[in-house]
Structure formats: structure tokens, C-alpha cells
Amino acid sequence: MPAGTGTRDCIPCYVINLDAARERRAAMAGRLAELGVPFTLFRAIDGRQLTPEQRALHVDEARAGREGYPLSPGEIGCALSHLSIYRKMANEGIPYAVVLEDDVCLAPDFARLLDRAEPEGLASLFPHEEPAMVQLTHVRRSFRRGGRPVLGERRAVRPHGGVWLASAYFITLGAARRMAEGLHPVWTVADHWRRMERAGLLRLHALSPNCAWASEQSRESCIGSGRSRFGKNRSAATRIKRWIDDLVVRPFLVERVPEIVGSASDTQASRPAVPPAPLAREHSGPWPVLAPRQAESALACPPRPAS
Question: Which are the contacts of 35, defined by CB distance < 8 A and separation ≥ 6?
């Protein structure tokens, strides 16, 4: 399909991008235009610009401390940016979405994965009310059994071990509703998916092999800078679980996931900083973005259900 025609009926694709990151925005628009994928540009929240009052309203510092570490301003902004998309999905009843940050490269069949008409596309994997998330970047290991076919060439598998990165993933309405309710005020980083699964907010899956990987621009994070270091839990129960995993689970139940690593160089970055296709639509999200040129109201606290 010619780039930029937008003739596919794709599930919504949201790209998170800071106002100041113009080169990233142009590069990402170019990648998606070449693939013919329409998208919505979500203006990211810059956690460094939150006032103390806004931070107190939107961040659960006490719970973050109980979970083991404080959140940096970059992590807070990143988490609130992703949370804005979950709230939009919940408020508007959007069945499925793919969320991208502005520093990923995408496989040539990315548009097919998003096409609603594909019988084995992402939208066919789960009922929209099921709280599912599919990691589109690479995970190291998965369980051997229980995978679901995707386009005949890939599988949606259950990952084994840690699952990180929020740069490219598919999410259902069921998961978005739980995340919108359960992650505000923010108490963890945007990509601690295992922690969210343990909290009952979603069920993790991963695409094997991956369809997204880091671009050169990912070396310098814009909205997620200042990663906190996670403490290691070395309790007796944890050590026993790790011992069982090493001796039984990994050798017999787990396999390595193949990895697709395309070029991290982006030819679009050297082109004029103008999105080459008219597919992008800008959306500020349920919370106004605290960017330098932003003159709207301060972050509004989402309504809480009556107890």
C-alpha cells in the first residue's frame, strides 16, 4: 500500500512525544507515514514542570516508597503520559490501542498487525473487555505452550521473567480501565509491567518475534529520564522461587524468544522536520500538558468513584 494513503482500517495508534522533541516527532511521523499507519500524537507531560501541589495531587509518594524506591520527575511525567491514554480509552470506550513512544523503529508488517480486517491481527487476539497487554518490543524468554498465532508468522506468547519498556505495546479496553483506576495517583514507573500484573491490573503477553525495536534516538530519553534503581528482594521465599525456576521451569517449560533487530538508524531524521503525511492528529490528553507553550489550566484531578 502506498505510504500515507491510510486506507487500512487500523486500530488507534498513539505516539507520545514532548513538544520540544521536534526531530523525534518528525522522524516518528515519517516512519508511520511510510507504513501507511494513521496515528494520534499525544503531547507528553513533562514531570519536571509539575508544581509541588500538582505532584502531591498526582503522585502517591508514600506508596512508591513502600514499593521500594522514589519516583524521579522524568518517571512521573512518563507514567502520567501513558496514564492519559488509558483514561482516554476508558472514557471513550476505545476497544483496543497501540501505544508508541517516539524512539522506536517498526517492522514492515506493522500496518497489518494493526489492521482490523486481518483475521490474525492484534485486534483478533482478545475480547476487548479482557485486561490484556502485548509487549511489541523484544522479551528474552516465554513459556513454550499457550501461544496464539499472529499473522501466521508470529505468536502472542506468555513472557517469562522481567518485562520492561513502554516504547511499543498493544492494550485492550479492559486493561486500560483497570490501569486508569489503579495507577492514579502514580505509584510506579510506566513500564514495571510485572508489578502491574501482580496488582491485578492486566495480564501480560508478548509478540514473538518482536515488531518494534529501539531507534538511535532512544539513547537519550526525553520523558523517562532519571530511571530509579530497583532494590533486589532477596528474601528466603524469593531465593527458593528462583532456585525452582532455574532447575525446573526454565529447562523444561521456557524457550528463548527470537529477536528481530532492524537498523537503528533513521533516514527520516535527516529530512526536513515536517511530518510528511497528513495522518497525525494532535491530542493533549485528559490532563493538560505542562509544556512551555502550554497556557491551559493546571492538571485536573480525575473524578474518584463514590465510596
Answer: 3, 106, 108, 110, 111
Cα 40 to the center of its chain, rounded Å: 14
**Cα–Cα distance measured from residue 177 to residue 161, given in angstroms and rounded to the nearest whole number:** 25
Tell which residue, 25, 83, 22, 72, has the closest CA to residue 50: 72
Backbone angles phi, psi at 90, to 5 degrees: -65, -45
CA separation for the pair 21, 101 (Å, rounded): 12
Is residue 72 exposed (0-12), middle (13-18) or buried (19+ Cβ within 10 Å)? middle
Q: Is 55 helix (H, G, I), strand (E, B) or coil?
A: helix
Nearest to 115 by CA among 7, 34, 5, 9: 9
In a domain, 20, yes or no: yes
42's enclosing H/E stretch is: strand 39-43
Confidence band (pLDDT; 50, 70, 90) for 105? very high
Q: Is 296 a domain residue?
A: no
Could you give the number of structural domains in the chain?
Answer: 1
Domain membership of residue 93 (yes or no) is yes
- Report how far residue 21's alpha carbon sits from residue 254's, in angstroms, rounded to the nearest whole number: 40
Confirm if 53 and 250 have CB atoms less than 8 A apart. no
CATH of the domain at 243: 3.90.550
pLDDT confidence of 237, banded at 50, 70, 90? confident
Answer whether residue 100 shows pLDDT above 60: yes
Instruction: Give domain status of residue 110, yes or no.
Output: yes
DSSP conformational letter for 68: T
Return the amino acid letter for 10: C
- The pTM score is 0.84
Structural domain that includes position 249: 13-283
Instruction: Return the closest-CA partner of residue 29 out of 20, 45, 40.
Output: 40
* CA gap 39, 280 in Å, rounded: 5
